[in-house]
Every structure is written in C-alpha cells, then in structure tokens.
Specification:
By secondary structure, this protein is mostly helical. 75% of the residues lie in helices and 0% in strands.
C-alpha cells in the first residue's frame, strides 16, 4: 500500500503500513522465540476467525444466517481441534509483545505516532494539514523499510534463506499482482 504513491501516499496509509510492519516484526520475533509462542500465534488465528463469526452472528437478524454461522463455527472448531489449535484465552497486547521482544523503547517512541495517524485523533481531524509535513511521510516510509528489512534479515538467519532472494521474489510477486513490468 505504501509503495504505490511513494512519499505522496496519504499519511493515514503510511501510518497504517508502518504500524502494521512494526507489529508484524514484534509478532515475528515473538513467534521465533519459542514453539509455545508459535502455537499461541496459531491459536490466535482461530480466535480471530471465531470472533468475526461471533460478531456477524450477533448482528444478524436472519435466523437462516445465524444457523449458517453456527454451522460454520462448528466446522471451524472441529477442524481446529484436528489440527491441535485451541481458541486463545487472552491475546497479547502490542505493548506486551514489545516488552517480551526487547523493543519496548521503540514501541514507546513510535506507537503514539502511529495511533495519532491511524485513528481519528483530534490532530488528524482538526488539523490534517499539519500531518502533511514531509517529515511525517519520510519517517513513516523509513520506519516501514527498516522493520521490513529487520524481519527479512531475521528470516534469513532463522530459516537460512537469502534475503536478496526473498526480496526479488517479493518484488516479482508485486509486479505480477499489479500487472506491470518492473522498471530496470
């Protein structure tokens, strides 16, 4: 999302992308730390899916739709049980992940910035022009790249794969997805 318009990308998009990249990096480090953390992440997948279904089911006035959601919930729960996945009792917060991965100072430095840009903060609503300053765009773009590269570097170390190969593969997939040929 952040790559399409470069530094001209709307600040809300850059903020979301930077925040998501940072959170993914925290999650990635957390998952790599132990098999137990990896299983917790797998469990979160089920929890997220069931939470969505529960929400749709609660909002639907149609009994046939409610019955369909109930069937789907049972199907997903049965499949999860076959795979050894359980509904998570409690999801870790981003702050907890930052503390557990030793990135608490980065969390404290950047997360307020991300939140002010992603959520309808008073600054974003009352003074959107303030957020158009180039420093915000550059900072978020660099932040996204840094944590993206950190992730790729750690993946290369952990899985013994070439970061350059991962980058080339990701770029090839990007260009194929947008239906364009890469510029040389």
């Amino acid at each position: 999302m952040a790559n399409c318009a470069g530094l001209e990308t709307p600040i809300e998009i850059l903020g979301l992308v930077a925040r998501n990249t940072f959170e993914l990096y925290l999650r990635f480090l957390h998952v790599l730390a132990s098999a137990e953390n990896c299983q917790r992440w797998r469990n979160e997948t089920l929890t997220d899916q069931l939470d969505i279904y529960d929400g749709f089911e609660a909002l639907s006035p149609d009994q046939a739709a409610i019955a369909e959601f109930s069937r789907e919930i049972r199907r997903v729960e049965t499949r999860a049980q076959e795979l050894g996945i359980e509904r998570a009792r409690r999801l870790p917060t981003v702050r907890e992940l930052a503390q557990q991965t030793g990135l608490d100072s980065e969390y404290r430095a950047f997360f307020k910035i991300y939140s002010k840009l992603v959520h309808p903060s008073a600054l974003a609503v009352n003074s959107p022009a303030t957020l158009q300053a180039p420093m915000y765009h550059v900072t978020l773009s660099l932040n996204t790249q840094v944590y993206g590269w950190f992730m790729m570097d750690r993946a290369g170390e952990h899985f013994i794969v070439s970061v350059d190969d991962c980058r080339r593969n990701a770029m090839a997939r990007f260009w194929a997805a947008v239906g364009l040929k890469p510029a040389n």
